[in-house]
Amino acid sequence: MTLFSMPTSRPGRALAATLVLAGLLPARARSAGPSPADRAIAAAEQKLAGNRPDAYVELATAFMRKSRESADPSYYARAAAALDRALALDSDDYDALRTRAWVLLGQHDFRAALAAAERARGLRPEDWWNYGTLADACVELGDYERAEVAAQRMLDLRPGLPAYTRAAFLRTVFGDRPGAIELLARAARAGSPRDPESLAWTLVYLGHEYFATGKLAAAAAAYTRALAVLPDHYLALGSLARVRAAEGRLDEAAALYRQAVARVPSPDLVSALGDVHAAAGQADEAEHEYALVDYMGQVAEATGTTYGRQLALFYADHDRRLPDALRLAEQEATMRGDIYTDDALAWALYKNGRPAPAARAAHRALRLGTEDALLEYHAGLIAAAAHHPRRAARHLRRALGLNPYFDLRQAPIARARLAALDAPARIVLGGKE
Amino acid sequence: MKTASLTLAMTLLATVARAHPLGNFTVNRYAALRVERGAIGVHYVVDMAEIPTFQERKLIDANGDQTIDAAEQEAYVAGRVAELARNLTLTVDGAALALDADAHALEQPPGAGGLPTLRLEAWLSAPLDPTRGAVAFADRNFAGRPGWQEVVAEGSPGMAVTDSSVPRVDRSRALRAYPADQLQSPPQVTEARFRISPGATPAPAAGSASPVRIGAARFSDRMTELIATRAPLGPWLVFTSLLVAAALGALHALSPGHGKTVVGAYLVGTRGTARHALFLGLVVTATHTLGVYLLGILTLTASAYVVPERLFPWITAVSGLIVLAIGASLAASRLQTALAGHAGAHHHHADNHTHLHPQDHHHGHDHHAHAHLPPDGTPAGWRSLLALGVSGGLLPCPSALVVMLGAIALGRVAFGLLLIVAFSAGLAAVLTTVGLVLVYARHLFDRLPLDGRLARFAPVASALVISLAGLVIVAQAIAQMGV
Which of A202, B6, B43, B477 is the most buried (most CB within 10 A)? Predict the structure, then answer.
């Protein structure tokens, strides 16, 4: 969600990227040289000798790029340290202040990020950048109206990849997926190959929009394009794996997940790999992956970092450590107010046998009219537990109607529960005839 | 950038014991290349943070009983090291070298919350036939996985590494101490390119190869080994160490370039006596000892500004100039006497062995013989003898310096100083012996009736040999400076 890129324009590279995307040029596979972020870090370090704030801001920006490129969150702390240095040299350095909001978003300190973004906006109301950080912070805190205003302002000031992707995200949560796809296609065209990570991220996001509506072929095409831009991009690999799993090509899916996990072992990727093993009847392998996710939770607790929402969903999905799932979800809900946090809390409450508060949280999760199969599925099971079978069936039907492949492990459960809910109704109907 | 980051490094360098400093899913890689004569060594280290360590445990626990026994661990390390080595490519001028594991080690240092991390270490090496060429190294393990990725490369006494794309010295002490300074971005280097050539010492400036010290390198290595042993020093060990140091000094004197030519030619050319030879030995010992001490102090104080290797050529040049001056003045005065033509001179066996290359002069001076110098001819003057001894002892001996600095670095200053005395004594003993042999040999020749003219010019020839030696020393020094 925090997607920023600095303005760049290099016609030659843009042409090359277009050719790559068109499949006319082979993408450079596994380039051994330094990545764009590594080059940016090296360039910034060259300028530190002058001991000027702008050099440290540049370094912080490069560290942020690196953190996204590698998914290594330890770079956030480095970026924060670089900004501290810049602000120590000049406490009013505007670039450092506006960049700080971005770093705070990465560190999941959303309230501080909002305050920092507001302060920077007060200093320079015409800087498009501030509306991006503002929109991101508002989204995470659940203030979607304000986020929409900020994103609109950003689109007006500087229509480009950062503004399009934010606007697309808001269209998604407000229930307009075709509109989101339109904006993402525009964002991909505006993307620069000089920042392949942003472009690849946008293409992955585009793929998600297709996947969310069950269009597996279109989704796979988008992910493949992302891989052409950024070979071995872990998000694209994991997303393509999900498509293959949905198509029933479990071996391919497992191989792709393994490739992604070899780069970035994030809980959701490892858990998805476990689900593929489970679907293939390999219970031992599945359990091994699940144990790894458990272990990640342990490490996260030990280091104070948190994958809160991811872990809470994993535990709840797999009926493991359910009290931990609830604790993590509640903890996350104190920091964030977005619909996905509400959804995770609802699901954890439900799994812990508390359907009433779960139903309230599920209602909040669906308050924007988002068309998301997972949200509907959760709401469906919660409604069933709260003895609202007709509402339950409606949610489950919507979930499977939106995307019958929404989750390798949960979609079969949704079908079974829907069948069970429908069965008595048919008997009743049959009885009337 | 350099000053800023350097001060930062000094104030903030510290090990982080708690969580893995580079993120808990990083896999950190490190390769230190060392080029030696006949082999390239790679010290390869993989440091896994908590999460990859957990993933790795599945591989270690081969029988899946959730515990790791010694046999499993050993099997895992051997197999894993072989696998890691396969993903390292090392080529010289495009030809691949096969890396074999000489040794390996596995540690599980505790990380965040006492959870284990994993440190896998391998010492690999590949035989190296060529002595010159372009070396390329690439690490393809864990491609794309975030983490510290560092490659360093250095030469050794005897092989120089130049034009290197990577530094000589690492920043992480082989992944044992990551800089805590957040602004020091982790290196992301997985490749190295450099050129190798036979070289005196691994000079960071383009290592122009002086052939002089190639043979001496091995002695100095052994000598450094002597003091590098961490064991407590017993009297027996001290005694044998001193003995070995003296022996190494003697060997060093026999190795080319150490003023033997000069000493021999001088003693023979002048009317040197046994006393002169002994005196010369004493002076050389004292000068060499003092010279090494002085150079050591100079190196320690000046190391912030000057690379020690850069000092050697200058000192060599100075001592070469002294030798040249002595040789030239002797030649001038003797030529005068020879041209004046003196009667009563006995004849000598002709000197048909005037070697022009000091390196080759281990033996052969015994063929030198000459006339009794005329009564008014200059006898071996004490002053010029002193100057000669000083210049002979001053000839810098890097291996002795390395030994002393090594001893100081290990906190054994007195022992290091003592070793140098022993080393110098051994060196002087050989030079004195050479001198004595020549002196007595000359007495033998004195009894032979030899014929006129050659004998008169022999002293001149020996003076010229001295001058030539001085010239060669200066030339070598200039070559070392890379001018």
Answer: A202
A300 vs chain B: nearest CA distance in angstroms? 8
Please indicate if any CB of chain A lies within 8 Å of the CB of B188. Answer: yes
Residues of A in contact with B50 (CB under 8 A): 295, 299, 302
Higher-confidence residue of A192 and B9: namely: A192
Whether residue A277 lies inside any domain: the answer is no
Instruction: Tell me which residue range forms the domain holding A426.
Output: 328-433
Same domain, A256 and A337: no
pLDDT digits (tens, 9 = 90+) for B445-462: 555 544 555 556 666 776
Q: Chain A interface, mutation test: which of B2, B16, B20, B24, most A Cβ atoms within 10 Å?
A: B24
Structurally, how many domains does chain A consist of? 2
ipTM: 0.72
Higher pLDDT, B231 or B259: B259
Q: Exposure string (b/e) for B290-305, b if CB count within 10 Å is 16 or more?
A: ebbbebbeebeeeeee
A41 contacts on B by Cβ (under 8 Å): 185
- Domain assignment present for A411: yes
Residue A207 is part of a domain; what is its CATH number?
1.25.40.10
Q: How far apart are CA A54 and CA A40, in angstroms?
A: 14
Contacts of A295 in chain B (CB under 8 A): 50-51, 54
In terms of phi and psi (left: phi > 0; alpha: psi -120 to 50; beta: otherwise), the region of B147 is: left
Domain membership flag for residue A220: yes
Predicted confidence band at B482 (pLDDT cuts at 50, 70, 90)?
low
Q: What is the pLDDT of residue B362?
A: 36
At B192 the three-state DSSP class reads: strand
Q: Looking at chain B, how many residues does it have?
A: 483
Q: Are A117 and A134 in contact (CB under 8 A)?
A: yes
- For A313-341, write each residue's pLDDT tens digit: 999 999 999 999 999 999 999 999 999 99
Q: Is residue A154 part of a domain?
A: no
Residues A340 and A430 in one domain: yes
With contacts defined as CB-CB under 8 Å, which chain B residues touch A56? 183
User: Which residue in B165, B185, B190 has the most chain A C-beta atoms within 10 A of its own C-beta, making it the best mutation to test that interface?
Assistant: B185
| B172: DSSP letter | S
